[in-house]
TrEMBL record, chain A:
This is NADH-quinone oxidoreductase subunit J. The keyword Membrane applies. Pfam families: Oxidored_q3. Its EC number is 7.1.1.-. It comes from Seinonella peptonophila.
From TrEMBL, chain B:
The chain crosses the membrane at residues 6-22, 29-49, 61-85. The gene is nuoK. The lineage of its organism: Bacteria, Bacillati, Bacillota, Bacilli, Bacillales. Its main location: membrane. This is NADH-quinone oxidoreductase subunit K. Belongs to the complex I subunit 4L family.
TrEMBL record, chain C:
One of its GO terms (molecular function) is NADH dehydrogenase (ubiquinone) activity. It comes from Seinonella peptonophila. Residues 66-116 form the NADH-Ubiquinone oxidoreductase (complex I) chain 5 N-terminal domain. Residues 132-422 form the NADH:quinone oxidoreductase/Mrp antiporter transmembrane domain. Belongs to the CPA3 antiporters (TC 2.A.63) subunit A family. It is a multi-pass membrane protein. The keyword Transmembrane applies. This is NADH dehydrogenase subunit L. The chain crosses the membrane at residues 6-22, 29-54, 74-100, 112-133, 139-158, 170-189, 209-226, 247-268, 280-298, 305-323, 329-352, 373-394, 409-430, 450-470, 496-517, 546-563, 599-620. It is found in: Cell membrane; Membrane. One of its GO terms (cellular component) is plasma membrane. Keywords: Membrane, Transmembrane, Transmembrane helix. GO terms for biological process: ATP synthesis coupled electron transport; electron transport coupled proton transport.
Length: 168, 107, 621
């Protein structure tokens, strides 16, 4: 029972719990908040994996920007107070659950059947300097710039899509 | 500490997200679930970058790209949702059925 | 001679075709003229044929190949022997007279030409029936006369009783027809020919064994029973009186119902070869005679009394044939044709003069108002009762003698009692119509002259027809010329039989006169044995009810069961077969509901099944 395992255990419980609550809460706002909680827990897991930069980005982008975006989305559209799951057929619900479970079972069996017995990488490999070096000096520059282009396109596209259409 | 634990956690989160995508009525929640699935993938990437065959920061770089694309996706997704909401007056996924051939399956 | 024979047949057919084509013609004179002239033509030529045959003692035979069945050739043929010539004359004469009568009787009817067309078709069919040389052809015409009977009984199809009666006649005679048809098949199987001559030859040479002869005879008899209204298939004949009265006279008294008698006579060698068959014929005939006479005692419908009388007289003819009295049966057939047609036509005249009233209880006193009709009716009654010198006396007397000589004393006694009963009901009928005072408020309408002419002719014939056999047996010698049946004529019967019969008749007439001279007495409440008997007779021995409960209801139940089976079991299976693809395609179309989540779920299911399918084998190898 190492400290790392203990921390992983707590964070995993938090992440799964947040996700489950996201599925099971009745009110949309509560769902958004529980998902943000999951994002925070995942950020914690990234810290545990020596990915400090990614963890911070996770908190900034996901727990911050995306969640806020979602909240705007929630507020700009009208919702019933409660999520009604019963208008969809029961059969659909059950089949979804069953096959999501089946998918999980397949994944689990693959994961536990695979012989993963590898040593952990050295902590010194994962500094932010190394990351920047890798990113900008070994061929990831072009994709990085394309990402910015993608973001620009997404920005413009979102504005055009979300803009109110003018009355003709 | 083994990689399997992280992979298992990611699998669980992914499946929960999958279930949410398949069964939730509210389009916003469906988008949430998609984000959750993407996050599960990120966990995998980062976990492999530490416990994988060739430990390096490349996994981190990939997850950065994923996060970027996910952010763009969320923005466009919300924008599409708003446009659809204005068109149909609802944010329920089960009322978006324009994939169906409207001419003969009106019922 | 051949052309004359063919012309006899084709004239009524021509009349039928003309009139059914011209069924919208308004001119009644033209329509009736066509009918009467064609049937008169047929009668004239038939008489010529008959005269010719009496003088030259020849036969007319026309035959042409029709079907070739492997090695057998079925012929389409006409053969006019003595019996056939007599039948031709009888049928065409009565048909002609009835058509003249119908001119008056049906004058107010909407479908006047159709009626005459049907009569023409009937005449053609009946003439065809009696002139056919083989059984297959007889069967065709046999069914055709059945069809005409159906059409004419149901002529007033807007009356439910007429509809029911027509259906009943068709269905009940069908039972007999099936028997006849089986007999024909058996004959072809065993003898290899349909020809009447071949049949009699095969029987006389003993080609077919005794058991088969008996069976064939019995089956032919069943056909005859159906057509001639013998017990137990008699129930349709009284109901057939729902048809117009000329039809009753022509078809259901004088001609068609005698087709059964004719059939037995035409295949008489078969019957002679089997004593069982003869027994059955005579017992059925004798029983029917007294049975129908009993029912006739209490009927209150003028036509029904006559109908039961017809059944009874047909029973006499059967009795005669069963007692090997070939000539006697035919003789009675002819005389009965005349006097029963006379009675029916006269009854029709009575009905017309009383505004279509048929209930005997509302008649009476017609003697004072229509003396001529009363006299002709009386002649018919005398003939039917069998008082000398009217024709019925001779024919009935001969039947009684034959039965006595044949040795069935029980049947002889029954026949004698029937003579008494006949006399009683006939004169009950007569007195109820003509004696006393009128029991209805309506005034009488005069009977058209055109209706009285056939009545007068038939009256004369009924009076005189007996003298073809008296004082010398001209009729038998003609009928038996060149026939093997000639050997049947036996030694003379004791003369006292005739006297006893006349005595019985007079007794019956007297009793009826005593009881009904003052007309109809309103029924006193009848009690005890007499009341009981009266009720049974009124209900015609409950035969109709018996058939209803024993045959009609179970068949109806079976019908309902089959409907249920068809609707729920068969129909259910059919619907199930239809529902399975509908259900499957409904499931398939539910998948195409246009919702992304459903599509995603289906993809997921497909993916998982694919993974399982690809990898599952690994765990078992």
């Amino acid at each position: 029972m190492t400290g790392e395992f203990f921390a992983f255990f707590i964070l995993a419980i938090c992440a799964i719990g947040g996700a489950v609550f996201m599925i099971h809460f009745d009110r949309v706002m509560h769902m958004a908040l529980s998902l943000a909680f999951t994002f925070f827990a995942i950020a914690g897991l990234f810290f545990l994996l020596d990915a400090e930069f990614v963890a911070v980005i996770q908190i900034l982008i996901y727990a911050g920007a995306v969640s806020i975006l979602m909240l705007f989305g929630i507020m700009l559209t009208k919702h019933q107070e409660k999520e009604q799951t019963f208008t969809r057929t029961k059969l659909h619900q059950w089949l979804s659950f069953l096959f999501a479970l089946g998918f999980l079972a397949i994944l689990m069996s693959v994961i536990y059947l695979a012989p993963f017995t590898l040593p952990a990488g050295d902590q010194s490999l994962y500094s932010v300097n190394k990351l920047a070096e890798q990113l900008f000096k070994s061929g990831y520059v072009l994709p990085f710039e394309l990402t910015s282009l993608l973001l620009l396109v997404a920005l413009i596209g979102s504005i055009i899509l979300a803009k109110k259409e003018e009355k003709e | 500490m083994q990689i399997t634990s992280y992979l298992a956690l990611a699998a669980i989160l992914f499946s929960i997200g999958l279930y949410g995508v398949l069964s939730k009525r509210n389009a916003v929640i469906v988008l949430f679930s998609i984000e959750l699935m993407l996050n599960a993938v990120n966990i995998n990437l980062v976990a492999f970058s530490k416990y994988g065959l060739n430990p390096s920061v490349t996994g981190h770089i990939f997850s950065l790209f994923t996060i970027t694309v996910a952010a763009a996706e969320a923005a466009v997704g919300i924008a599409i949702l708003l446009a659809l909401y204005r068109l149909r007056g609802t944010s329920n996924v089960d009322e978006y059925d324009s994939l169906k051939d409207e001419s003969d399956l009106q019922k | 001679m051949r052309w004359i024979t063919l012309t006899i047949l084709l004239l009524p057919l021509l009349s039928f075709l003309l009139l059914i084509g011209g069924r919208k013609w308004r001119s009644r004179g033209l329509v009736a003229g066509i009918g009467v002239l064609t049937s008169y033509g047929a009668f004239h030529l038939s008489s010529y044929l008959l005269m010719n045959m009496i003088q030259k003692k020849t036969q007319v035979v026309i035959s042409m190949p029709w079907l070739t069945l492997s090695d057998q050739v079925v012929h389409l043929g006409i053969k006019i022997g003595a019996l056939q010539a007599v039948m031709l004359v009888l049928v065409s004469l009565v048909s002609c007279l009835v058509q003249i009568y119908s001119w008056g009787y049906m004058r107010d009817d909407e479908r006047f030409p159709v009626f005459f067309a049907y009569l023409g078709l009937f005449t053609f069919s009946m003439l065809g029936l009696v002139s056919s040389a083989n059984l297959l052809q007889i069967y065709i015409f046999w069914e055709l006369v059945g069809l005409c009977s159906f059409l004419l009984i149901g002529y007033w199809y807007y009356k439910p009783e007429a509809r029911d009666a027509a259906k009943k006649a068709f269905i009940v005679t069908r039972i007999g027809d099936v028997g006849f048809f089986i007999a024909i098949l058996m004959i072809f199987w065993k003898i290899g020919s349909f020809e009447l001559d071949a049949v009699s030859k095969a029987v006389s040479t003993g080609t077919i064994s005794g058991v088969w002869v008996t069976w064939i005879a019995i089956l032919i008899l069943i056909g005859a029973i159906g057509k001639s209204g013998q017990f137990p298939l008699h129930t349709w004949l009284p109901d057939a009186m729902e048809g117009p009265t000329p039809v009753s006279a022509l078809i259901h008294a004088a001609t068609m119902v005698t087709a059964g008698i004719y059939l037995v006579a035409a295949t008489f060698p078969v019957f002679l070869a089997s004593s069982y068959a003869l027994d059955i014929v005579s017992y059925i005939g004798g029983f029917t005679a007294i049975f129908a006479a009993c029912i006739a005692l209490v009927q209150t419908d003028i036509k029904r009394v006559l109908a039961y009388s017809t059944v009874s007289q047909l029973g006499y003819m059967m009795l005669a044939l069963g007692s090997k009295g070939y000539v006697e049966g035919i003789f009675h057939l002819v005389t009965h044709g005349f006097f029963k047609a006379l009675l029916f036509l006269a009854a029709g005249a009575v009905i017309v003069s009383l505004h279509h009233e048929q209930d005997l209880r509302k008649m009476g006193g017609l003697w004072k108002k229509n003396r001529g009709l009363a006299i002709w009716f009386l002649i018919g009654c005398f003939a039917l009762v069998g008082l000398p010198p009217f024709s019925g006396f001779f024919s009935k007397d001969e039947i009684l003698q034959t039965v006595y000589m044949d040795g069935r004393i029980g049947l002889f006694v029954l026949a004698l009692i029937t003579v008494f009963l006949t006399a009683f009901y006939v004169f009950r009928l007569y007195h109820l119509i003509f004696a006393g005072t009128s029991r209805t408020e309506q005034k009488n309408t005069p009977v058209p002259k055109v209706m009285m002419v056939p009545i007068a002719i038939l009256g004369l014939l009924s009076t005189l027809a007996g003298f073809v056999q008296f004082p010398k047996a001209y009729f038998s010698s003609f009928l038996l010329q060149g026939s093997k049946l000639a050997s049947l004529t036996s030694e003379a019967a004791p003369a006292w039989i005739g006297w006893v019969a006349v005595l019985f008749s007079l007794f019956g007439v007297g009793l009826a006169t005593l009881l009904y001279w003052r007309g109809y007495q309103p029924a006193k409440p009848r009690v005890g044995l007499i009341g009981w008997a009266h009720r049974i007779l009124e209900q015609k021995f409950y035969i109709d009810q018996l058939y209803h409960y024993v045959f009609a209801l179970p068949l109806k139940g079976l019908g309902y069961f089959l409907i249920g089976w068809d609707r729920f079991v068969v129909g259910g299976l059919v619907r199930l077969v239809g529902l399975v693809p509908v259900g499957l395609s409904r499931i398939a179309s539910m998948l195409q509901n246009g919702q992304t989540q459903t599509y995603a779920l289906v993809s997921l299911i497909g993916f998982i099944l694919l993974v399982i399918g690809v990898t599952v084998g690994r765990f078992f190898s």
